[in-house]
Amino acid sequence: MTRRIKMRTLLIGGLTTLFFLVLMTRVFWIQVVNAGFWQDYAEKQWSKKEVIKAARGTITDRNGDTLAVDIPAYTVAVNPRIIDKYKIQAEVVEGLHSILGKPENELLELVNAKDKDGNLYAQREVRLEGWKVDLDIKNKVEALQKKLKEEHHIADSGISFVNETKRYYPQQSLAAHILGYMNREGEPVSGLEAYYNKQLEGQDGELQYEADPKGIEVPKADKMYTPVKNGDDIKLTIDTTIQYYIETAMKKAYDDLKPISMTVIAADPKTMDILGMANMPTFNPNTYWEDYNPQNFTNHALTSVYEPGSTFKIVTLAGAVQEGLFNPNETYQSGSIRVPGRTIHDINRSGWGTISFLEGVKRSSNVAFVKLGYEKLGPEKLKDYIEKFGFGQKTGIELPGELKGTVNMQYPADYAAASYGHGQLLVTPIQQVAAVSAVANGGKLLEPHIIKSITDPNTGKTTETKPKLVRQVIDPDKAKEVGSYLEQVVSDQKIGTGRHAYIDGYRVAGKTGTAVKVVNGEYDYSKSVVSFIGYAPVNDPKIVVLVVIDQPQNSELGGSTAAAPVFKDIVSKALPYMGVPKSTATTEQPNTKAAASAKAPTLKGKTLKEATSQLINSGIAYETLGKGSKVISQFPKEGTPMEAGQVVYLLTEESKTMAVPDLTGESLRDAVEVLSLMGISVTAEGEGYVTGQSVTANKDGTRKVHLKLAPPSTTLDTSSGDNSDPDGGKALETIQDGEPPG
Known about the structure:
Blueprint: H1 2-33, H2 35-46, E1 47-52, E2 59-60, E3 66-78, H3 80-86, H4 89-100, H5 104-111, E4 124-125, H6 135-152, E5 159-168, H7 176-179, H8 191-195, H9 197-201, E6 205-210, E7 224-226, E8 233-236, H10 240-257, E9 261-268, E10 273-280, H11 300-303, E11 304-306, H12 313-322, E12 331-333, E13 336-339, E14 342-345, E15 354-356, H13 357-363, H14 366-377, H15 379-388, E16 406-407, H16 412-418, E17 425-426, H17 429-440, E18 444-446, E19 451-455, E20 462-464, E21 469-472, H18 476-491, E22 509-519, E23 522-536, E24 543-550, H19 559-577, H20 608-617, E25 622-625, E26 633-635, E27 648-651, H21 668-677, E28 681-685, E29 689-697, E30 703-710, E31 730-732
Parallel strand pairs: 2-8, 11-31, 25-27, 28-30
Antiparallel strand pairs: 1-6, 2-3, 3-4, 3-5, 6-7, 8-19, 9-10, 9-24, 12-15, 13-14, 16-17, 18-21, 19-20, 22-23, 23-24, 26-27, 29-30
């Protein structure tokens, strides 16, 4: 008996000891060996984390009009359990189908959706039709909720909303290719939305804190807070009004001409601010998925290349003028010209006989430009000017996908063809706008830009984009001379190829282009790319516009008849909107003649209308000083030999308060002559051309103007961007007016 008791005691004691040994081993394992794991697990139970979403930056135009902004959005959701509980599947399906347009069979699947265990879900989102809908749709769904609750006397209809945000474009399709779009998952896809995504999206904030088992924050518990950084706001250089003028004119032409595509770019030539940029066909970034077609999303302005055709003759002309090789009165035999490897013809194969080079420019004679570019400039110098004007390099505009084009002349025929925009030469529209702007602004090749400023809403700091000089390509006086010839291409209503771009009251310079497309290695004369590029007013350019129309349905149409009228439609509205006054002297259709090598006519004593009409008919640029109706003095004086492109100043009143004209870009000699004509004394500092002026009053009531001068190459920042990125993208294979090369 005693022995049995002892054995039982030993057994119980041994089991108890073993239990404690196992328990202590387990505690040691948990608290020592696996301490890190359980510490992390515990922290997850009492630690909570909240993400504070950053607001995406807003995009506006140069005047502050909103182009892209985040707005509240609502995703429709259904609760299959509640809907099944009240047996209202049919009413929910019918109601949501009528509001959202989602097929009834798909809605029926949603309201009856079950998990893998066969249990009805508690929530299913109605995608895609009910995803991120606007307030109008939400209100309609809420009306359906109310109706179901009242009819069935229930507290929950099984329909709810998930509050979200979405990107909204209040101008709809306006500037779509510039802005790009955000997809329905909130990811940037193209345009500025993608290119500047890092700046626009900002950085989410975070709040970490300790909570009790019910999830309630524990007072005085340690917190960690990472502040939210909202996205930057971006102001663009574009003007929504000018953009509207562009897209309205384009849509009309697109509907009439039925081309494959159209591209228009408008810029301020003095700063290279892009005032408008558009393509047809286009899309609405709010509903990009409707009628989806990849071609609608191509920004041809910088992602397509093409042979420019006759619009490129501006480069050849500028080079010849700069080198002193262009004599407008020199004659040549038009029709055809032989270069090693081929014969090149004018659009009029028999030519117009022996004509002057100025007439050749106005008629867009290929032979004239082969003589200027290939024979006079020579292959190497021609290529040098092509590269100086920025071709074969990216412009550096702040948009994705820009191409650098091709400049690849090897044989004599290549160089001859390049002189009139053909052959081994592919350009982008944005390159052409930058190059022609260099002629308009006095010879400066500027980097185009579409960002006006970027503002950090967290600090209020704003970074402005400044004009950026790439290089001085030609001298200011030579640029004016080129402009005077291009003006006659438009103003000569008898033979000027650009006459359909003439705008009554404004002096317009420009050039047409008509390029036959290459199909399977051969030129197909039933397919062409037609274009027009020009600027206005010639004496003080405010806007440059390029119009490119790819393959209008009527292959007989050229740049003069198809593209120039679109330019006229846009610019005739844009200039008054920009506050550019009309000249009272250009109410009659002009018939310009060569102005170069002429002598200043006698204008003193004539009425202002008589004097300006005479100047227009002679192809001479002019500016009026004062508000009188009669010319009382002039510069240059009558009989003075004039340089090509030189401006005649007409004084019409003896007023001491008469406004001093803007003399920016003038030589010191011309500026002094003009001010002397007005009886104003002059002081100057520096050398070169006028870059600034200030007016002060003398004690005797007279005025004094102080001029600041600088050489052309030192007026702007000369740094340039990197152009090393490889090419890629879509090519429009084309040539220009007249015979194709090779």
